[in-house]
């Protein structure tokens, strides 16, 4: 979707040389020792020479140790809450801003086939297209993305139809300038759990931002192995995404759109 360009913030990095642009990649992570070392080292090979931050959610394996060994700055999630993806993302944003990032990019920590090109594509889209946010989408296994297919997209179609074209509204691969992330931190009552991804999408859209989806190819990630035979393991995520969208519909005066649904 191309909404009107975001006018509340003036960006000054469109013509900044790559060497002067500070990109920080953030991996929220919990018990990802099987992939974290490779994802950190792969992301660091991007042509934008990013710094890497891993926000560790009190892992009880070697996630933090391996991430640090691969060159990441590791910080602890401020609260020992699970699911706490929202807490981790907000902590990562604050840390990246404190480190003077121009662009902050999130990636899932469990990706098995991550390529430096993913970072290059997202950052380049932000700069070349001068959009406000770049989001990854990808081909996935037919049984993957159950919450997206059964909860997020159907509910967005009803309450936020201007978002109905987004293939991956819960994408973990998201890139924006620090000014926009800072603006998100200033909005009260943001989710602390799994609802954070769709909350960012809705709130940024309601600000009138220009958001682009970028095709990343195929995504192979370990979490799919955990639920591919039993999607009931995603029930907490589904619940949090569903109620985030409902609360956003109430906040933005969209709840009446439920009357458009035939039941």
Quickly give the structural class.
Answer: alpha/beta
Number of helices: 9
Low-confidence stretches: 1-11
The CATH topology of the domain at 18-146 and 168-221 is Spore Coat Polysaccharide Biosynthesis Protein SpsA, Chain A
What amount of the residues lies in strands?
15-25%
What's the CATH class label of the domain at 18-146 and 168-221? Answer: Alpha Beta
Order of helices and strands: EHEHEHEHEHEHHEHH
Sum up the overall morphology in one term: globular
Number of E-state strands: 7
User: Helicity, in percent?
Assistant: 25-40%
Instruction: Please list the strands of the largest sheet in the order they lie side by side.
Output: 3-2-1-4-6-5-7
Q: Tell me the name of the CATH homologous superfamily of the domain at 18-146 and 168-221.
A: Spore Coat Polysaccharide Biosynthesis Protein SpsA, Chain A
- The oligomeric status of these chains comes to single chain
Let me know the average pLDDT. 88
Please give the radius of gyration in angstroms.
18 Å
CATH second-level architecture of the domain at 18-146 and 168-221:
Alpha-Beta Complex
Main β sheet profile: 7 strands, mixed
- Alpha-carbon distance between the termini? 29 Å
In a nutshell, what does this entry contain?
With 263 residues, this protein is an alpha/beta fold.
């Amino acid at each position: 979707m191309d909404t009107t360009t975001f006018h509340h913030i003036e960006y000054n990095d469109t013509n900044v040389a790559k060497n002067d642009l500070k990109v920080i990649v953030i991996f929220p992570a919990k018990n990802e020792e099987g992939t974290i070392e490779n994802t950190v080292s792969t992301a660091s090979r991007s042509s934008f020479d990013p710094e890497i931050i891993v926000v560790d959610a009190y892992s009880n394996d070697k996630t933090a140790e391996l991430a640090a060994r691969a060159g990441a700055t590791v910080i602890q999630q401020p609260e020992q809450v699970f699911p706490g993806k929202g807490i981790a993302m907000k902590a990562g944003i604050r840390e990246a801003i404190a480190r003077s990032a121009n662009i902050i990019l999130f990636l899932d920590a469990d990706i098995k086939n991550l390529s430096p090109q993913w970072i290059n594509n997202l950052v380049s889209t932000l700069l070349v297209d001068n959009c406000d946010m770049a989001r990854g989408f990808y081909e996935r296994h037919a049984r993957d993305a159950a919450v997206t297919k059964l909860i997020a997209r159907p509910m967005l179609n009803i309450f936020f139809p201007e978002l109905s074209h987004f293939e991956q509204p819960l994408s973990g691969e998201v890139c924006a300038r620090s000014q926009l992330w800072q603006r998100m931190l200033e909005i009260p009552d943001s989710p602390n759990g799994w609802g954070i991804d769709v909350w960012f999408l809705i709130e940024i859209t309601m600000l009138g931002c220009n958001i682009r989806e970028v095709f990343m190819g195929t995504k192979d990630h370990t979490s799919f192995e955990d639920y591919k035979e039993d999607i009931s393991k995603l029930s907490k995520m589904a619940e949090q995404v569903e109620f985030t969208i409902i609360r956003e519909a109430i906040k933005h005066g969209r709840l009446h759109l439920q009357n458009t649904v035939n039941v």
